What does this fold into?
Amino acid sequence: MLFSYNETGDIMKSIKEDITNEIIINRSRFITVLIKINDIDEIKKKLENIKKIYKDATHYCYAYIINNKEKCSDNGEPSGTAGLPILNVLKQNDLTNILCVVIRYFGGIKLGAGGLIRAYSSSTSIALNKANIVNLVNGFTLTIEFPYENLKQIDYLLKNINTQKDYQTNITYTFNITEEKLKQIENELINLSKIKLKKPITLAS
It folds into this structure.
């Protein structure tokens, strides 16, 4: 099995599913939302959706790591007291393909710089402790097109793989597959179908 590694050689991990957790510190509510992401283009939409769900919050601080890219935002908190602590927790846990948003509803008591750093770090860590962490393997999102006469052979090759199916003049399948599995069936897959999309992703092992 091929695993994804970071620059230090550690196996990279992600969350299996999204999770939400809330803690209260000195009357302020800190709601942490962990979101599994496969594409950096998803992030803007995810953030917009969170702001709709948690209306009137004081701050929406976040950090993400995906495909060796990372970013964090304090969203109005003092510089370095929110986004960076969130990001550091994600990095310490060797996580990738993850967006962490900590929503704060101010409770009227100021925490100070040190208190904010501890609050955002703790919020992230506690949520991660409740998450199902999985190792990641290299893989692809594939879209293939093939004639009806090749349906049985394609279905046999892709048995136990979840596929999105579209039946038109030809049949189109879209699915995620590990790099290892693709190497095993790629030649036969090419002989039976036309590969319309091959996009690198990481998958849970």
